[in-house]
């Protein structure tokens, strides 16, 4: 059945689900089998050589994992999808499969911390030429792309200051230069943003975050044109960063409520951002849904919702943060984001702990910044919680 002609909420529930299931089970079975048996040797050979659909060995593909890949593929409007053990598995396999000695990747200063490590520490070991630009300097990015580029790697909104990158404009520049555009769509989710429709060639997710949505499973997914996805799949199959059936099941189950969660999180984050913006003890609020955000116009053009993550800084610096955060009731003070429960933490001790104060300043990250990933709790309870904690300062 072709689910691409249905709405996202319908596809989230139905896409990829295999029927008939054993005994008419109405949920996808968790197929833990490592290998798949054949009685007909010709059929086995055809599946093993890719001439027929089927399963051979779970490092390559697995029926439960395939259900998740199908859901993300349909929501991103892609021809093909493949999955990985983690989001970083998706990112590293994609970059290592597409790049090599003498190739050039152009990207942003504000990519996810692990991605940034790949650019600065690991890819250069393999003679890959890496150029990182100021995240919102689109003129400079265009110049660097035109100077010769094999892969343009983007992320938007960025972590933790929610900068917005113009996907359409930069993907067009990459196309002119013969480069492949890859977008990390983790923060936006396919409910709020579809990079392939904006001209990107590949889109990837840390499925650990919003897609799974419950902080109980790790995974990554890559989608795009079949030829490109296959190239990365062939690398992952040998590299071995394969997703297991159990986390795939949990993520696919989480995805059935993706739109419900994202709609709630979009609305709550906007309400909370507006509340914080007006609060005298808050020095700055970063949320692309605020019309004062420098990327608001681009966000409005390329997103249908502004997402569930915001960040804000407090008057009183890091000392105020240390006092404020433990006072909150409905928050896990933890890394990660995109869960049903609200999660918060200072980039100074989480995502950007390895940088110096000076490096954080260069990225525009105040020492008193708090990243706040809004859960699905009642927004009035979250507002009361924030209000009480701010009053205690
Ligand atoms: C968490 C995250 C990743 C890495 O995903 P893991 O599943 O933790 O490996 C990549 N990109 C972004 C934007 C993330 O938030």
Automatic annotation (TrEMBL):
Gene Ontology terms: biological process: methionine biosynthetic process; transsulfuration
Family of this protein: Belongs to the trans-sulfuration enzymes family.
Transmembrane segments: none
Protein's organism: Spirosoma agri
MF GO annotations: carbon-sulfur lyase activity; pyridoxal phosphate binding
Record-listed N6-(pyridoxal phosphate)lysine modification sites: 209
Lineage: Bacteria, Pseudomonadati, Bacteroidota, Cytophagia, Cytophagales
PANTHER family xrefs: CYSTATHIONINE GAMMA-LYASE, TRANS-SULFURATION ENZYME FAMILY MEMBER
Protein name: Cystathionine gamma-synthase family protein
């Amino acid at each position: 059945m072709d689910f691409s002609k249905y709405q996202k909420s319908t596809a989230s529930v139905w896409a990829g689900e295999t029927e008939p299931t054993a005994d008419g089970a109405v949920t996808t079975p968790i197929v833990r089998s490592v290998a798949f048996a054949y009685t007909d040797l010709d059929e086995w050979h055809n599946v093993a050589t890719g001439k027929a659909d089927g399963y051979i060995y779970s490092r390559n593909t697995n029926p439960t994992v395939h259900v998740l890949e199908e859901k993300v593929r349909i929501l991103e409007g892609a021809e093909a999808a493949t999955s990985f053990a983690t989001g970083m598995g998706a990112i590293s396999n994609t970059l290592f499969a597409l790049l090599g000695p003498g190739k050039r990747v152009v990207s942003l200063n504000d990519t996810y911390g692990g991605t940034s490590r790949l650019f600065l520490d690991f890819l250069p070991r393999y003679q890959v030429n890496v150029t990182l630009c100021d995240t919102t300097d689109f003129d400079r990015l265009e110049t660097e792309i035109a100077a010769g580029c094999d892969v343009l790697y983007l992320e938007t909104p960025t972590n933790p200051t929610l900068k917005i990158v113009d996907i359409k404009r930069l993907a067009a520049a990459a196309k002119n230069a013969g480069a492949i555009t890859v977008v990390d769509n983790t923060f936006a989710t396919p409910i709020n943003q579809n990079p392939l429709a904006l001209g990107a060639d590949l889109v990837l997710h840390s499925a650990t975050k919003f897609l799974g949505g419950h902080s109980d499973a790790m995974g990554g997914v890559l989608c795009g044109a079949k030829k490109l996805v296959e190239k990365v799949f062939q690398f992952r199959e040998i590299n071995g960063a394969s997703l297991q059936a159990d986390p795939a099941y949990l993520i696919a189950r989480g995805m059935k409520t993706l739109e419900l969660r994202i709609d709630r999180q979009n609305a709550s984050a906007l309400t909370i951002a507006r509340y914080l913006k007006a609060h005298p003890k808050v020095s700055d609020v970063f949320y692309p849904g605020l019309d004062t955000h420098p990327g608001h116009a681009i966000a409005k053009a390329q997103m249908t919702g502004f997402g569930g993550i915001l960040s804000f800084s407090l008057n009183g610096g890091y000392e105020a943060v240390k006092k404020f955060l433990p006072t909150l009731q409905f928050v896990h003070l933890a890394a990660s984001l995109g869960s049903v429960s609200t999660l918060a933490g200072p980039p100074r001790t989480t995502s950007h702990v390895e940088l110096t104060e000076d490096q954080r300043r260069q990225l525009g990250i105040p020492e008193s910044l708090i990243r706040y990933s809004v859960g699905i709790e009642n927004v009035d309870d979250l507002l009361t919680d924030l209000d009480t904690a701010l009053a205690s300062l």
